[in-house]
Structure prediction request, 254 residues.
Amino acid sequence: MKDLFRRIIGKIKRTLKLDYRKYKGIILPPLGMRLMGDKFLDDQFYLDSSLREGDKFANRLKVNKDTVLLEIGCSSGRSVIGLIEKVGRIKRYVGVDANILNVNWCNKYIASKHDFCEFHYIDLWHILFNPNGSLRLDDNFRLDFEAGTFDILYLQSVLPNSVDWEIRIFAREYFRLLKPGGTLFLTDFIEENVPDMTENPEGYVMKCTYPRQIVRFEKNYFLKMFTDAGFVVDCYEQGTEVDTQSAVYFKKPF
Prediction:
């Protein structure tokens, strides 16, 4: 009995030391790297959410073996796990994130097994999350990629803490990075019949406990920031994403 007890304790200790979780044969990030809310701590919920992203890549964005895709804010790989499961190999997937731990984990457990994937750390300035970031947001802001490199830019829950002047800078850069005819997919807190921009609106979605936890936009005001940068609105879906964020599909004209 003592030997059995020691083996059980040893297995628990070894499991706690792992920096990943294996569920249904799929490597998932550890619980401490799932920062999208408590429901994502459940392996089945996390995997289901990844597979929904994969379905979106396959069916809505028509990602295929020839696609070159940039995910901005790749976090700990939730979207690309779904991409791999639902689409498989593509021409090139690039993930960038401002959290070095996310990037290191994704390189260790995803890029090492899928050579079309690569992950890069960007020390991007943000007044809340990275006030000492070296990559500043101004008229000279550029990501380290050539113009017209990507077929698709993908931003899942990346912009909800950004205000309008920041989003205008991002929109211009996203337009530069896309190929003509390319697609920009993003989510944000967007509503009709509300003020143009509200930081931490009361009684909306969740109780906000820190600055810029939510920045909500009026629909037309938000879309105009991107059409001013040259984009065309391809599709708008109200409240269909995480935490009732809305989804927008933009196109870069030929």
Observations:
- The chain has one domain: 51-251.
